[in-house]
Design goal:
- The protein is α/β, with parallel strands linked by helices.
- The strands form four sheets. It has a six-stranded parallel beta sheet with strand order 5-2-1-6-7-8, sandwiched between helices.
- Helix 1 crosses helix 7.
Length: 399
């Protein structure tokens, strides 16, 4: 726990999100000091509470994704629940929501209404296809965004169908764009004297924005990038190879000087001195030949020896880690990429550390994800509701 003031201290955030994109964005804000109130339905709350591996009935993912947040249950179909949300939004800095477009408007919380209620409010809206366009009303999870945005098409091997990356990367990328947009809107408000504004993030666009040079390559040359497995066409050599002990090594020796050092590390001075391999274009033209030679060299040695030779030659390379490998790695430990949390009942457990690393105002995890409605009383009390009022709202089904 750090005692220094955090960069988002004093920023009040209301989260109306669920699952991944919206809650990941507010998790980042909370780690760097924002007060995050997560509004959940009294009927079970965020479905993420029950996703993947459960500890005493609650997802371990939840305890991480909702760390530093307060949980307030509100029935937004009840007039009193809506009134409480209006009171919260009237004094909030940021609203994060990832409903399908139109849902908040039907509840009376569209952008026009909220801008009148609180002209300083920044509204971060995250959805599959954005708030406009012919597809805006369609449901769109991260998998759809990854598919429409181009990522799935280029992921995998050319003789097989497209594959998933292994995590919900589309949601996470959208969350990062959402945080960037919200912070830019806050800076405009605070430094330029502007009002609040709406930040519109579409999952497919968040993924599309990461697609490097695809657009100009097609527009200028009619080139469509295809699946290429582990290699990078035009950037050679860079691929994954299997060692004698059946372990995998990523080798990225595509720089001209790096390739020469790599070739010598393999005992192949002839390759290092070959003028046809002096640049990427030449190496890529002989891609198949080079990868066959590298495969054979790596396969002749155990992984540890391959990595030692490449480290000595200053060639970028790494093992392919699983989570157990990461937990033992000195680099991860030195960078505090695992921090200790405490589950309900006092059981200690490891969580991912905080990034980015800020030298003067670092982020932190103050507590794990809360129980459903854990902060109802404290939040409503701050709004001026008495204990009797709160009990009555509970009996009425408003909270």
């Amino acid at each position: 726990m750090h005692s220094a003031a955090k960069p988002l201290q004093g920023v009040k955030v209301i989260e109306l999100g669920s699952l991944i994109a919206g809650p990941f964005a507010t998790r980042i804000m909370g780690e760097f000091g924002a007060e995050v109130i997560k509004v959940e339905s009294p009927d079970g709350g965020d479905p993420l509470r029950k996703w993947r591996k459960l500890y005493e009935g609650t997802s371990l993912w939840w305890f991480v994704q909702a760390r530093n947040k307060q949980s307030l249950t509100l029935n937004l179909k009840h007039d009193s629940g809506k009134q409480i949300l209006r009171e919260l939004l009237a004094e909030a800095d940021v609203l994060v929501e990832n409903f399908r477009p139109g849902v908040l408007e039907k509840l009376g919380f569209g952008w026009d209404e909220l801008h009148k209620l609180n002209p300083k409010l920044v509204m971060l809206r995250m959805s599959g296809f954005g708030q406009t366009g012919p597809m805006k009303d369609q449901p769109g999870f991260g998998a759809v965004g990854e598919s429409l945005g181009g990522l799935r098409y280029i992921t995998g091997f050319d003789d097989r169908p497209p594959v998933r990356t292994g995590i919900s990367i589309g949601d996470s990328i959208a969350a990062l764009w959402g945080v960037i947009g919200a912070l830019m809107a806050l800076r405009h408000r605070e430094v330029n004297g502007g009002l609040g504004q709406m930040v519109d993030v579409a999952l497919y666009e968040a993924v599309f924005a990461m697609m490097e040079s695809m657009v100009p390559e097609f527009d200028v040359f009619g080139f469509i990038r295809e699946r290429t497995g582990n290699i990078m066409p035009g950037i050679t050599p860079s691929s994954v190879h299997t060692s004698a002990d059946g372990k995998h090594v990523q080798i990225s020796a595509n720089g001209d000087a790096i390739f020469q050092r790599f070739a010598r590390a393999m005992g192949r001075d002839d390759l290092a001195c070959d003028p046809t391999l002096a640049d990427n274009a030449g190496r890529d033209a002989r891609r198949s030949e080079l990868y066959s030679l590298i495969d054979a060299w790596v396969a002749s040695l155990p992984q540890a020896e391959v990595l030692a030779k490449l480290e000595a030659a200053e060639v970028p390379a790494s093992p392919i880690y699983n989570i157990e490998d990461m937990l033992r790695d000195p680099q991860f430990l030195a960078r505090e990429m695992f921090i200790q949390g405490e589950l309900p009942g006092g059981k200690a457990f490891k969580m991912p550390g905080i990034i980015p690393k800020l030298s003067a105002t670092p982020g932190s995890s103050e507590h794990v994800g809360p129980a459903l409605g854990e902060h109802n009383h404290s939040i409503l009390s701050r709004l001026g509701y008495s204990s009797e009022d709160i009990e009555r709202l509970k009996q009425q089904g408003a909270i």
